[in-house]
Structure formats: C-alpha cells, structure tokens
Amino acid sequence: MKTYQVDNEGFYGEFGGAYIPEILHRCVTELRESYLQVLESESFRQEFSSLLRDYVGRPSPLYLSRRLSEKYGCKIYLKREDLNHTGAHKINNAIGQVLLAKRMGKKRIIAETGAGQHGVATATVCALLGMECVVYMGKTDVERQHVNVERMKMLGAKVHPVTSGNMTLKDATNEAIRDWCCHPADTYYVIGSTVGPHPYPDMVARLQSVISEEIKKQLMEHEGRDYPDYLMACVGGGSNAAGTIYHYLDDERVKIVLAEAGGKGIDTPFSAATIHLGRLGIIHGSKTLVMQDEDGQIMEPYSISAGLDYPGIGPMHANLAAQRRATVLAVNDDEAIRAAYELTRLEGIIPALESAHVLGALPKMSFKPTDIVVLTVSGRGDKDLNTYLNYNLQ
Hints:
The strands form four sheets. Strands 3-4-14-9-10-13 form a six-stranded mixed β-sheet, sandwiched between helices. The protein has a four-stranded parallel β-sheet with strand order 7-6-5-8, sandwiched between helices. α11 links the parallel β9 (230-234) and β10 (255-263). α4 (90-103) packs across α9 (200-208) and α5 (117-129) packs parallel to α7. 41% of the residues lie in helices and 18% in strands. The protein folds into two domains: 12-51 and 90-203, Rossmann fold; 60-88 and 209-390, Rossmann fold (3-Layer(aba) Sandwich), CATH 3.40.50.1100. 56% of the residues are buried. The protein is of the alpha/beta class. Keywords: Amino-acid biosynthesis, Aromatic amino acid biosynthesis, Lyase, Pyridoxal phosphate, Tryptophan biosynthesis.
C-alpha cells in the first residue's frame, strides 16, 4: 500500500524539503528538532486540547445538510469550521504554534495573512497568551478585508500593509520571511498553511488534523462507520484540506476531492489554479508546484478569494495530485459565488469565499444515492459580504 505521509527529510514524494537562506538555517533546524518533541508531549497535548475545547469551542459540528443532499443525490455532511472562535479553521494551527513558540522561549510572533483569518487567529492567540504580534498583509488584501484588519488591530497586533508585487498573500509571505531573517533569535514565524520549509507543512497538517480526528468520531455516531466515501475541501496553501484528510490519507476507501481557485478560468491569465497550471519549482522554502513563466519567474495569481490567491501549493497536496490520490477541480469565480448563494439560500449558512470554491465543485461531481460526502466549510462569510454584494454575477 502506498503511503502519502512526509519522510524524515520533509519530502512528500518529490515535493517539500527546506530551501532557505543561510541566516534562517539555525531557526529552521531548531524548529525541526523541537516540534515533534513538544507536540507529542503530554503537557502540550493537554493544554492544546483544553484550549480547543474551552476557548475555540471544539468539536465543531458535523452537520447533515438535508437540502444540499437532496439536490446532489447523496448524503452531504458539512464540517462546520466556520463555527470556531474567530470564524475559521485557522485558530487550530495558531494556538498550536504559539504554544510551541512559548515553549521554545520566543518573545515575538510574526505571521502572514491573505484573507485575514490566519492573521486574526494569530493576533487572538497572542492576545490570549501575552505575546507581541506583527502581521504582514498585502495592500490589496488590506483593502478587500478591511474588517479583519481592524479586528487584528483591536487585538493588539501591528499590521504592515505590503506594497510590493501584486500586494497579496505571496508578497505578504515574502515580507514576513525578510522580517524573520532580520530577527532570527527572538522571533517565531507562525505560517498559516501547509507551505514553507520543512517542518511547517507537516506541523500545520498535524495541528489541523483535529478536523479529521473529529470527523471519524462524528461519522461513527451519525452513520455507524468512521469513514466517508468522499472528503471535499478547498485548497490554496492547503491547511483546511490537510486537516480534513489527514487521518484518511492511507485509507483508499475514501476519495479525496480538492477545489482550487480557477479565477476567471484556467485558460485565462487570471487564475490561481496551481495544480492545473503549475510546474515544479521552489517557493517560500519548499519544492512544489508553482505558477511560473517560461523563464521560471513566479506569475502573479488571481482569485476573487484572498485566501486562495497563492501561486504555490502545499507539498502534501502536490504529491497527492501527482500520485492521483486526490482529484483536483478548478472552480472559477462565478461558480464559487453561485455556490455560496446556494448554500445560503438552502441552509442559512453564509460561507467564506474560500469554502465557496469547494461548494462550487459539487455540480462537477457524480454521486450515488448511497454515497456519504463530508465537505469542510473552512470559514464563515462575514469577511466577504462586500465582495458577495458587489459581484456582478453573469
């Protein structure tokens, strides 16, 4: 049987590794040598579990969406990460990494953010645990996610708008890495997705795996079995997807379907569908699929969703696609917006634009009436209301 887990060098098949400047070698090595020891310790597990339960509000519900099920001819359960404190799955990872940083003796936390949910989650945990917090966010995203910016400031974080490049997630990540290079001794970089140099992709996946751990228990309660026929999640960097599928990676009974941001179409210059359009390259310390031109220069991605607007993909997901363990569908802006309104009107749930992309994959699927589908709603749509209301759906 194939295995899809990370190896000792931080590779998933041919993807992953740690390609970093010399100045960060000590930081990344220190993290690699510490993270498993801390994450697997009893004291960390107890504190992490306690905060997830009493502060975040986990377990998040597994909700049988009767009207969506009826429409698509199967049984669709929604894993409701939108009901977590701060409104998305990002808080799971932020709590874990800031607890780790404290145990490593770090005093200052930096983070990048696209849609703002990871920034808000990191700022929230830093406020809770009394840590200094600096968040880098592309100026384009600052403007389209203004409410999240104000939330971060209210929580005590310093928000730096980034004006280089496309002024989105890639550029925010670049600036965060520059900051880390300048302050390697006292600073801990909380990466929000399954991207970056090893051990970040594995660490974020482990911290988010609480999602699939809960799915197993909740399906057993609902269905008398602990696995679905399909797992579905949106994927940009890939943290909510990694958490959704983590405990099912080697279970071939479960089909994995990932939805990436098609933008205005994968046949246009305006897309963020990295798995469809990317080639092997290195971005932010990891060898993975990267959207690039003939000269190997990173192309500017486009998505209506700030959280999926990234020209790379986590190495776990690049490997799953290459091994054909996961089916990856590109969902364009129009399809995502339609799907968001459909869920809102059928179930009274307004999803984040990121989650709307995986909902937009449902019409592309062919289910049997007996199929059990678990679809992760990674976040709530409060932050995206202006985009929804201003979008001219053709």
